[in-house]
Design brief:
By secondary structure, the chain is mostly helical. The chain has helices at 4-7, 10-13, 20-26, 40-61, 67-78, 80-89, 100-105, 111-148, 158-169, 210-224, and strands at 176-183, 190-197, 200-207. Helix 4 crosses helix 5 (67-78), helix 6 (80-89) crosses helix 8 (111-148) and helix 9 crosses helix 10 (210-224). It is elongated and about 65 Å long. It starts with a helix and ends in a 5-residue tail after the last helix.
Length: 229
Protein backbone atom coordinates (compact mmCIF):
# COMPACT_ATOMS: atom_id res chain seq x y z
CA UNK A 1 0.00 0.00 0.00
CA UNK A 2 1.53 3.28 -1.07
CA UNK A 3 1.94 5.81 1.77
CA UNK A 4 -0.51 8.71 1.79
CA UNK A 5 2.38 11.14 1.43
CA UNK A 6 3.20 9.59 -1.93
CA UNK A 7 -0.45 9.39 -2.95
CA UNK A 8 -0.61 13.18 -2.55
CA UNK A 9 1.83 13.44 -5.45
CA UNK A 10 -1.01 12.52 -7.78
CA UNK A 11 -2.02 16.19 -7.57
CA UNK A 12 1.25 16.86 -9.41
CA UNK A 13 1.13 13.96 -11.83
CA UNK A 14 -2.61 14.26 -12.56
CA UNK A 15 -2.54 10.46 -12.70
CA UNK A 16 -3.73 7.65 -10.43
CA UNK A 17 -1.13 4.89 -10.53
CA UNK A 18 -2.12 1.30 -11.16
CA UNK A 19 1.44 0.21 -10.35
CA UNK A 20 2.39 2.32 -7.35
CA UNK A 21 5.88 0.79 -7.26
CA UNK A 22 6.70 2.99 -10.27
CA UNK A 23 5.81 6.07 -8.27
CA UNK A 24 7.99 4.97 -5.37
CA UNK A 25 10.87 4.13 -7.70
CA UNK A 26 10.66 7.57 -9.37
CA UNK A 27 11.24 9.16 -5.96
CA UNK A 28 14.19 6.95 -4.95
CA UNK A 29 17.58 8.62 -5.33
CA UNK A 30 20.61 6.48 -6.15
CA UNK A 31 22.15 7.27 -2.73
CA UNK A 32 19.57 4.95 -1.13
CA UNK A 33 21.30 1.87 -2.62
CA UNK A 34 18.13 -0.21 -2.43
CA UNK A 35 17.81 -3.65 -4.05
CA UNK A 36 14.67 -2.41 -5.82
CA UNK A 37 16.78 0.17 -7.69
CA UNK A 38 16.65 3.95 -8.12
CA UNK A 39 15.12 6.55 -10.42
CA UNK A 40 17.95 6.93 -12.93
CA UNK A 41 16.43 4.75 -15.66
CA UNK A 42 13.04 6.42 -15.24
CA UNK A 43 14.75 9.83 -15.44
CA UNK A 44 16.30 8.82 -18.78
CA UNK A 45 12.89 7.82 -20.12
CA UNK A 46 11.08 10.85 -18.71
CA UNK A 47 13.60 13.22 -20.27
CA UNK A 48 12.80 11.82 -23.72
CA UNK A 49 9.03 11.89 -23.13
CA UNK A 50 9.19 15.51 -21.90
CA UNK A 51 11.13 16.58 -24.98
CA UNK A 52 8.64 14.86 -27.26
CA UNK A 53 5.52 16.34 -25.64
CA UNK A 54 6.89 19.88 -25.47
CA UNK A 55 8.18 19.68 -29.06
CA UNK A 56 4.82 18.37 -30.34
CA UNK A 57 2.92 21.05 -28.40
CA UNK A 58 5.06 23.87 -29.79
CA UNK A 59 4.89 22.39 -33.29
CA UNK A 60 1.09 22.48 -33.18
CA UNK A 61 0.83 25.83 -31.41
CA UNK A 62 3.14 27.74 -33.79
CA UNK A 63 2.59 26.33 -37.30
CA UNK A 64 4.59 29.12 -38.98
CA UNK A 65 7.64 28.98 -36.69
CA UNK A 66 10.88 27.65 -38.12
CA UNK A 67 13.02 24.90 -36.58
CA UNK A 68 15.39 27.28 -34.81
CA UNK A 69 12.58 29.23 -33.16
CA UNK A 70 10.84 26.07 -32.00
CA UNK A 71 14.11 24.71 -30.62
CA UNK A 72 14.76 27.90 -28.63
CA UNK A 73 11.25 27.79 -27.19
CA UNK A 74 11.65 24.12 -26.26
CA UNK A 75 15.03 24.72 -24.64
CA UNK A 76 13.58 27.55 -22.57
CA UNK A 77 11.06 25.15 -21.06
CA UNK A 78 12.95 21.86 -20.59
CA UNK A 79 16.28 23.14 -19.27
CA UNK A 80 17.47 22.03 -15.85
CA UNK A 81 16.79 25.24 -13.95
CA UNK A 82 13.26 25.42 -15.32
CA UNK A 83 12.56 21.83 -14.26
CA UNK A 84 14.05 22.39 -10.80
CA UNK A 85 11.92 25.50 -10.35
CA UNK A 86 8.77 23.52 -11.15
CA UNK A 87 9.83 20.74 -8.78
CA UNK A 88 10.45 23.22 -5.97
CA UNK A 89 7.12 24.98 -6.54
CA UNK A 90 5.32 21.63 -6.27
CA UNK A 91 7.08 20.61 -3.05
CA UNK A 92 8.76 17.59 -4.60
CA UNK A 93 11.70 17.75 -2.19
CA UNK A 94 9.53 16.55 0.69
CA UNK A 95 8.83 13.27 -1.14
CA UNK A 96 12.28 12.39 -2.49
CA UNK A 97 13.88 9.39 -0.80
CA UNK A 98 17.59 10.03 -0.15
CA UNK A 99 20.23 7.86 1.56
CA UNK A 100 21.06 8.74 5.16
CA UNK A 101 24.74 9.38 4.44
CA UNK A 102 23.84 11.78 1.66
CA UNK A 103 21.23 13.50 3.85
CA UNK A 104 23.77 14.07 6.61
CA UNK A 105 26.09 15.67 4.08
CA UNK A 106 23.31 17.80 2.60
CA UNK A 107 19.97 18.08 4.36
CA UNK A 108 17.97 19.27 1.35
CA UNK A 109 17.99 17.71 -2.13
CA UNK A 110 19.94 19.66 -4.72
CA UNK A 111 18.21 21.22 -7.71
CA UNK A 112 19.84 18.59 -9.93
CA UNK A 113 18.28 15.83 -7.83
CA UNK A 114 14.86 17.49 -8.04
CA UNK A 115 15.20 17.93 -11.79
CA UNK A 116 15.99 14.21 -12.16
CA UNK A 117 13.11 13.23 -9.87
CA UNK A 118 10.62 15.28 -11.88
CA UNK A 119 11.75 13.65 -15.11
CA UNK A 120 11.59 10.25 -13.41
CA UNK A 121 7.99 10.98 -12.39
CA UNK A 122 7.18 11.75 -16.02
CA UNK A 123 8.77 8.45 -17.02
CA UNK A 124 6.75 6.61 -14.38
CA UNK A 125 3.49 8.19 -15.53
CA UNK A 126 4.31 7.26 -19.14
CA UNK A 127 4.92 3.61 -18.25
CA UNK A 128 1.85 3.38 -16.05
CA UNK A 129 -0.65 5.39 -18.11
CA UNK A 130 0.79 5.86 -21.57
CA UNK A 131 1.54 8.93 -23.64
CA UNK A 132 -1.81 10.64 -22.97
CA UNK A 133 -1.30 10.48 -19.21
CA UNK A 134 2.24 11.85 -19.58
CA UNK A 135 0.97 14.63 -21.82
CA UNK A 136 -1.68 15.61 -19.28
CA UNK A 137 0.95 15.84 -16.53
CA UNK A 138 3.44 17.81 -18.62
CA UNK A 139 0.91 20.34 -19.89
CA UNK A 140 -0.35 20.81 -16.32
CA UNK A 141 3.16 21.53 -15.03
CA UNK A 142 4.35 23.74 -17.87
CA UNK A 143 1.15 25.40 -19.09
CA UNK A 144 2.15 28.86 -17.82
CA UNK A 145 5.44 28.81 -19.71
CA UNK A 146 3.78 27.53 -22.88
CA UNK A 147 0.94 30.05 -22.73
CA UNK A 148 3.37 32.91 -22.19
CA UNK A 149 5.28 32.29 -25.42
CA UNK A 150 4.69 34.95 -28.03
CA UNK A 151 6.89 34.72 -31.08
CA UNK A 152 8.31 38.12 -31.86
CA UNK A 153 8.28 40.01 -35.12
CA UNK A 154 10.96 42.56 -34.46
CA UNK A 155 9.92 45.82 -32.83
CA UNK A 156 6.24 45.11 -33.50
CA UNK A 157 6.00 42.58 -30.68
CA UNK A 158 7.74 43.72 -27.48
CA UNK A 159 6.02 40.96 -25.46
CA UNK A 160 7.58 38.39 -27.76
CA UNK A 161 10.98 40.03 -27.42
CA UNK A 162 10.74 40.10 -23.65
CA UNK A 163 9.73 36.44 -23.62
CA UNK A 164 12.73 35.52 -25.78
CA UNK A 165 15.02 37.54 -23.49
CA UNK A 166 13.68 35.80 -20.38
CA UNK A 167 14.10 32.37 -21.98
CA UNK A 168 17.72 33.12 -22.77
CA UNK A 169 18.73 34.84 -19.54
CA UNK A 170 16.31 33.43 -16.94
CA UNK A 171 16.11 29.79 -18.04
CA UNK A 172 12.58 29.98 -19.34
CA UNK A 173 11.06 31.95 -16.47
CA UNK A 174 7.84 33.60 -17.59
CA UNK A 175 7.33 37.39 -17.38
CA UNK A 176 4.35 38.16 -15.16
CA UNK A 177 1.84 40.82 -16.16
CA UNK A 178 -0.24 42.39 -13.38
CA UNK A 179 -3.26 44.47 -14.26
CA UNK A 180 -3.38 47.77 -12.37
CA UNK A 181 -6.55 49.78 -11.62
CA UNK A 182 -8.13 51.13 -14.79
CA UNK A 183 -9.16 54.76 -15.14
CA UNK A 184 -11.83 56.65 -17.04
CA UNK A 185 -15.50 56.00 -17.83
CA UNK A 186 -16.70 52.63 -19.10
CA UNK A 187 -16.87 53.83 -22.70
CA UNK A 188 -13.32 55.19 -22.59
CA UNK A 189 -11.31 53.05 -20.18
CA UNK A 190 -7.57 53.50 -19.83
CA UNK A 191 -5.72 50.38 -18.74
CA UNK A 192 -2.38 50.02 -16.93
CA UNK A 193 -0.13 47.00 -16.44
CA UNK A 194 3.09 46.18 -14.58
CA UNK A 195 5.45 43.45 -15.74
CA UNK A 196 7.90 41.61 -13.50
CA UNK A 197 10.49 38.87 -13.82
CA UNK A 198 11.83 36.83 -10.94
CA UNK A 199 9.78 38.91 -8.51
CA UNK A 200 11.31 42.20 -9.72
CA UNK A 201 9.18 44.77 -11.50
CA UNK A 202 10.79 45.79 -14.79
CA UNK A 203 8.31 48.26 -16.23
CA UNK A 204 4.80 49.66 -16.45
CA UNK A 205 2.66 50.49 -19.42
CA UNK A 206 -0.72 51.84 -20.37
CA UNK A 207 -3.13 51.74 -23.28
CA UNK A 208 -6.70 51.70 -24.48
CA UNK A 209 -6.89 47.91 -24.00
CA UNK A 210 -5.36 45.36 -21.66
CA UNK A 211 -3.32 43.93 -24.52
CA UNK A 212 -1.97 47.35 -25.46
CA UNK A 213 -1.06 48.06 -21.84
CA UNK A 214 0.84 44.77 -21.59
CA UNK A 215 2.73 45.52 -24.81
CA UNK A 216 3.63 48.98 -23.51
CA UNK A 217 4.82 47.48 -20.21
CA UNK A 218 6.97 44.95 -22.08
CA UNK A 219 8.48 47.78 -24.12
CA UNK A 220 9.34 49.63 -20.92
CA UNK A 221 10.90 46.46 -19.50
CA UNK A 222 13.04 46.02 -22.59
CA UNK A 223 14.35 49.54 -22.14
CA UNK A 224 15.15 48.72 -18.52
CA UNK A 225 17.06 45.68 -19.72
CA UNK A 226 18.85 47.72 -22.37
CA UNK A 227 17.23 45.69 -25.13
CA UNK A 228 15.93 47.32 -28.27
CA UNK A 229 12.16 47.40 -28.42
Amino acid sequence: MIPSTLRSLESITRHTFADTSLLELALTHSSCSLPTGDNQRLEFLGDAVLDLIIAETLFARFPLADEGTLDRCRAGIVNGKSLARVAVSKGLAAHLQVGEAHRQHRAEPSHAMLEDALEALIGAVFLDGGIEAAQQMILHLFCDQIEAIELGKGSQNPKGQLQEWSQKHHDGEVPRYEELPAEGPDHNRHYSTAVSLGGQELGRGSGSSKKAAEADAAKAALKTLNCKA
